[in-house]
Amino acid sequence: MTGTGNSNLTRDAFLGGRLHLWQPREGYRAGVDAVLLAASVGATTGQRVLELGCGVGTAILCLNSRVPGLRLAAVEVQPTMADLARRNGGDALEVFTADVAELPADLRQRQFDHVLANPPYYDRAASVRSGDPAREAAHGETTPLATWVRVAAKRLAPRGQAHFIHRAERLPDLIRALPDDLGSVEVLPLAAREGRAPDRVILRARKNGRGAFRLHPALALHVGAHHSDANKDYAPVVDAALREGAALRF
Fold it and tell me: Where's the Methyltransferase small domain (predicted)?
C-alpha cells in the first residue's frame, strides 16, 4: 500500500492498485484482515451486502471491486470514519452513522444476502485501552461480541451468510454467540507461517443452514517457517487475494 495526501489523510492503494481509499494518516489504519475478510465472501452480482463497523469501507469496497453490481450498505459509529467511507464508496455505498447495537429503523426493515464484520478484537475487561480514540474504537470492545453476532443474524435473508474475522482466542465466544438459526458453520484459521499457531479465524455461517460444522486446515499467510529479509513473501493464495483481488476459498 502506498500513501499520498494532506496532513491528516492518506490515499492508499489496495488490491494491487485496483482500489484507492482515503484513511487517517495516524491512528487506526486498515490492514490485511479487512482484505482477507472481503476475499472470503462468496457474493454474486446483484446481491445485497451489509458491513457492520465498516471503518473507512475497506472490506466492503474490496468486495465490491471483485464482484460488480452489488447493493452495498454499511454501518460505522465514528462520524469521521463514516464520512471517509462515504467519500471512498461514493454512490456505490450507503453508509449509516450508528452503533451496531442501535441500527436505524430503515436498516432494521431490510434483509441482506451477506453480512460481514471485523468486530473489535480486545475485551477491555482484560486488556489496556489505546490512547488513540480511533484506534480504541476499532480495537476495544464496548459493544459485546454477542451483540455483533445477533445483529448480523437478524439482518440476514433466508440462506444468507454471516462472515466474521476475529482473534483465534475469541473463537469460543463467537461460536457461543451464534443463534439457533445460524448453521452450516465453517471456520478457517489463519496462521502467520507454517508451524505457527493460528492467531486469527474467519468464521462464516448460513441463515437456516443445516450443514455439519467444518474446521478447515489453517492457512499460512507467509511462505517459510521463519521471517527474514529474504523471505517476506505471502503464500500464493494470500498474495492473489491481497494484490489481485482474488477470492479466498475455504
Answer: 36-126
Q: pLDDT for 60-109, tens place per residue?
A: 999 999 999 999 999 999 999 999 999 999 999 999 999 999 999 999 99
User: How high is the pLDDT of residue 139?
Assistant: 43
Residue 89: domain span: 28-244
What percentage of the chain reaches a pLDDT higher than 70?
87
Tell whether 23 is covered by a domain.
no
Kindly state whether residue 12 falls inside one of the protein's structural domains: no
User: Domain total for the chain?
Assistant: 1
State pLDDT tens for residues 203-226. Answer: 999 999 999 999 999 999 999 877
Per DSSP, the residues of the chain read: --EE-SSSEEEEEEGGGTEEEEEESSS----HHHHHHHHT----TT-EEEEES-TTTHHHHHHHHHSTT-EEEEEESSHHHHHHHHHHHGGGEEEEE--GGG--HHHHT--EEEEEE----EETTSSPPPSSHHHHHHHEE-S-HHHHHHHHHHTEEEEEEEEEEEEGGGHHHHHHH--TTEEEEEEEEEESSTTSPP-EEEEEEEET--PPPEEPPPEESBSSSS-BTTB-PBPHHHHHHHHH------
Residue 100 lies inside a defined structural domain of this protein: yes
